[in-house]
Amino acid sequence: MEQWQDPFLETNSEPAAPENSFPPKYQKPEAAKSNIWLKSIVSLALYLLLGYYFFHSFNMLLLITIIVVFHELGHFIAMKAFRYKDLGIFFIPLLGAYVSGSKREVSQRESAIILLAGPLPGIIAGIIFYLLYLQNPFLSIAGIPYYTIAILFLFLNIINLLPVYPLDGGQLLNRVFLDEESIISKIFVWLSIGALIWFALYGMGRPFYPLLIFPAMLIMRMFGDSKLDEVEKKVEAAGINLDTSYEEMPDTDYWCMRDILVTTHPAYRDIKPGPPYEYHEKEDRIMTSIQSLLHRHLVQDVSLAGKIFILIICIAAIASPWLLNVDLSFFRQFGI
Q: pLDDT at position 11, please?
């Protein structure tokens, strides 16, 4: 789960600042912000194109796409309700989709609602389609039986609730039940990486190598986070306040953090620190890295009773096909 207009071309059109002065901290151009939905459309087009090559059935591909969109819209609506910024839905061909957004103050309660808002409506929809199938086994949409629609709704959303990072269930476990910054959380992520690799190679009876993208991305992220931890220590040693928002951060702090970042992080070693202080063609990535260094406020607002309630909901949702005695013969064709 991007095409975009290079912000360097717009931003760099401003007159160069004097050698020892600090220009304003980098701001993403409005054109780049408005391109979020264009990126979503492009990713959806690629998703459909590669999906059709894999499934060879437009109706089945359309059904899976509708289920994925329905799932992600749940996340999107919840994030919109909690005032997340820069929202967008992005599709990963053959693998699914995700919603991106940003917010400095993150609540456990809000996070739980957002993460459950994707799979729970899909599971409920699957149950409804299955009950309709029981009433009339011959019902279908575009030649696809209600039974197949129900099973796919249930299966795809239950998979997302499993306690494996970065699935919704794994993120929920990490955010609400574990301390995200603790060693236990890091061990959990590494165990998830191992589980994802095993599933990609052996979980479906034969290897499905595209699934290795997920553990590969997680490994890259873990190593990237370790480099950012090193940068963070140097930034704090320099006396720069990280307990602030990007909007409130002084321009001087931005450029000082930027100098530390480009001299410490290997991804930016080709960029020279100031002076002179000038924007680079990678400035958008630099800004994102600096924003990730700023301390995020996690509000611990889920009580023990709330955690038990969330756990019961997850277990009931995952067990729903067996609780309702759903006929799972659909999976026999896959040797499951």
A: 39
Q: With a cut of 50, which residues of the chain have pLDDT below it?
A: 1-19, 334-335
Question: Is-cis flag, bond preceding 210, omega within 30?
Answer: no
The secondary structure of residue 149, as a DSSP letter, is H
How far CA 245 is from CA of 28, 75, 250, 264, 291, in Å, comes to: 15, 24, 10, 22, 8
The per-residue DSSP string of 77-133 comes to HHHHHTT-EEEEEEEETTTEEEEEEE-SEEEHHHHHHHHHTTHHHHHHHHHHHHHHH
CA 212 to chain centre: 16
**Alpha-helical runs (H) found in 173-323:** 183-198, 213-237, 251-264, 283-293, 304-323
Buried b (16+ CB within 10 A) or exposed e, 73-91: bbbbbbbeebebeebbbbb
Residue from 232, 211, 71, 219 nearest 152 by CA:
71
State both tokens at 316.
């009931």
How far CA 167 is from CA of 66, 103, 120, 173, 257, in Å, comes to 19, 20, 13, 10, 32
Peptide bond preceding 166 in cis form (omega within 30 of 0): yes
CA distance linking residue 251 with residue 22, whole number of Å: 7
- What integer pLDDT is reported at residue 51 of this predicted model? 78
Structure tokens at 70: 């329905």
Asked if residue 30 lies in contact with residue 86, where contact means CB atoms within 8 angstroms, the answer is no
Cα–Cα distance between 231 and 225 in angstroms, integer? Answer: 10
List, for residues 193-241, the tens digit of each pLDDT value. 999 999 989 887 788 888 888 899 899 888 888 888 899 999 999 999 9
Write down the pTM of the prediction: 0.81
| Other CB atoms within 10 A of residue 122 CB | 24
